[in-house]
Amino acid sequence: MSTCTALIVAAGRGSRFGGPLPKQYALLGGQPVLRRTLQVFRTTPGIDRIQVVIAPGDENHYQAAVEDLDLPPPVIGGASRQQSVRNGLEALAEHRPDLVAIHDAARPFVRVSDIIGCLEAVATPGLDGAILGVPLADTLKKVDERGLLSGTVPRAGLWRAQTPQVFRFAALLAAHRDAASLAASEATALTDDAAVAERARLRIVMVEGHDDNRKITTAEDMGSTTETRTAFGFDVHGFAAGSQVMLGGIAIPHAQALSGHSDADVALHALTDALLGTIGAGDIGKHFPPSDPQWRGVSSDRFLKHAVDLIATAGGRIVHLDLTIVCEAPRIGPHREAMAESIARIAGIERDRVSVKATTTEGLGFTGRREGIAAQAVATVEVPRS
After folding, report:
1. What is the pTM of this model?
2. Cis omega before residue 164 (within 30°)?
3. How buried is residue 80: exposed, middle or buried, by Cβ count under 10 Å (0-12/13-18/19+)?
4. What are the helix (H) ranges across the chain?
5. Domain boundaries, the chain
6. Domain boundaries 226-384, CATH class
7. Which CATH number fits domain 4-222: 3.90.940.20, 3.30.1780.10, 2.30.30.110, 3.90.550.10?
8. Pick from 268, 281, 283: nearest CA to 237
9. Model confidence over 227-259: pLDDT tens digits?
């Protein structure tokens, strides 16, 4: 049975990506891009060894990314991709695998089935390599130095090359060694390993892959840079002597008031807890402890505005607020629109992003006995991905 080593090239600097880390160490879905790439190859039948090539100075980033994956020490790359690959190939010379699969660390979306497709293709007698790619679907145009159209390029037979690119190891190593003597101007034309192999007149077949095997070049290539979070808030306040209740930031005439350390606006309290939950910021009691006298009798719009400000500080955006008030009295219907407008104003969002509903418990429980009011809220926010 043929042996195949996956040579993962992670020595690039990714200047177009931006950010504090090279793109191969940036987090994608909570994991470094490099780790996600490695996990695909670790689960691919036919890959019996993985070797990573990294840039000098990235050792700490690498160790953090591959912790507990039990990989051999990384190979240090060179000043160009071609040099980095050759360094990796030379490091594998003592193992002399039958095949080597060269793959960009910044292509974490590659499918196991496509890797297998390349391995099966290169097994064809007479072939030296098989590379993954997709046929061009867009029309190609030529332009002159002024940017004016000068012609259309027929796209028949044109493909976009991807990785992995799988070769017979000995043939590719020889091709890279031969290309190492080229002048810099000639070497720049060898943009991938297939180009190095073509120069050596190796026979290579194209294997059709998928568009989602994209290479991460900019932050946008990571997919959405935000994520949507939803959290739930619930609060209860009992009735006490008074002539009005505060709900949703407005005063509603009633035979009783709600009892609480602040103005006991049960609706705004539930909304505040829901918003705090979306960013893991605890609950209302953590930020405004009832034992602190400075919050006695304070308007609860202060609490909601505080939660809104915390979300803004985290770079988040409120998508929607949904509030349900549970009580027998007062009637919420006549005040529903005023409450929604009040909540939207406090939160600094459009009115149509606020929903206010009301229900009863059909005479059951403490709300059914008219002992107090309960409120539950659901907040949906969009925040930057970690």
Report:
1. 0.62
2. yes
3. middle
4. 33-42, 59-66, 81-92, 112-122, 169-179, 184-187, 193-199, 266-278, 284-287, 301-313, 336-347, 365-368
5. 4-222, 226-384
6. alpha beta
7. 3.90.550.10
8. 268
9. 899 999 999 999 999 999 999 999 999 999 999
